[in-house]
């Protein structure tokens, strides 16, 4: 019998790539998504890539009754992977309530519905933002978490604390939190990728949109950091590698191989690249010269963040297989496909 997995936020950027990895690993997938920042057209793309169409439920998980109903319908699910959340850092600073309401209500309602229906395996989509300003690098999972700069980041930290408490109170519940570093890239088919609404906040979509002529120039936020070229260093991770990490974390839960009922893993490559290195690599891979300008630092940016990835390697048997070249070329292929299709998803 195939395992049935509920993926909340499965139409989003990381969720949709993970759904593909799950289907490829022979799981039955039920996506729950409110489509607030995605399109159900993604389901066509997923079926085109995998030849399977996941079950789709359009539900707002802030609504506890609707959440209970959809979990009642799928109470034979074996596990939940929870992506559904808002993720725009700047917007979260402007509208903290929106972020706390959405990201925490959806989490709490999901955990409550899982308890009610005896579904007791959970994977959470967390972020390296929970480390705040790291004291030592590369950063291990043992580092103290700190209050993140943004309300968005704080919802990730609070969510981990909520999950830990819930796991502690329920002897059957097992949870894994994956702390992502900087996910970029797209599926190699060029059929799914990141679709930022409005002006992108993150570096890679800003770069590809500038190269495609949608933005006049890229602002490089500061070149006076204590790094090799003065620009901040991050650990960029291919979204398909990240998706595969979820499939392995799920297997660990389903095989009951966990050593603790709540486990945390860094998901990065362990390698750091500066903003200028990313720009140069993009130019050489795409053949497009990027217009950019050095501006002021962006509030809340840390100089350097890259992962110690030994724990994921040892316990999940996971390492990133794709390097910077694949990350950049797949991001660019996706952007070019979007332009060819006049920004219509399909
Ligand atoms: C950001 C979030 C982090 C979130 C992650 C999700 C902040 C402070 N942090 O991480 O909480 O989990 O996205 O992917 O927003 N940069 C530019 N110009 C740009 C955009 C970015 O120079 O137009 C630089 C930034 O200064 C940074 C690097 O590029 O050094 C990466 O930025 P970004 O892609 O936004 O990721 P993070 O800030 O690391």
Describe this structure in words.
- This protein is of the alpha/beta class and 346 residues long.
- The protein has a single domain, classed as 3-Layer(aba) Sandwich (Rossmann fold), CATH 3.40.50.
- It contains eleven helices and 14 strands.
- Helix 7 crosses helix 11.
- The longest helix is centred in the first third of the chain and has 21 residues, at 96-116.
- It starts with a strand and ends in a 6-residue tail after the last helix.
- The model has no long low-confidence stretch (mean pLDDT 96).
- The structure holds uridine-diphosphate-N-acetylglucosamine.
Give the name of the CATH superfamily.
NAD(P)-binding Rossmann-like Domain
Low-pLDDT stretches are: none
Element string (H = helix, E = strand): EHEHEHEHHEHEEHEEEHEEHEEHH
Strand order of the largest sheet: 3-2-1-4-5-6-11
Integer count of domains? 1
Q: Rg, please?
A: 19 Å
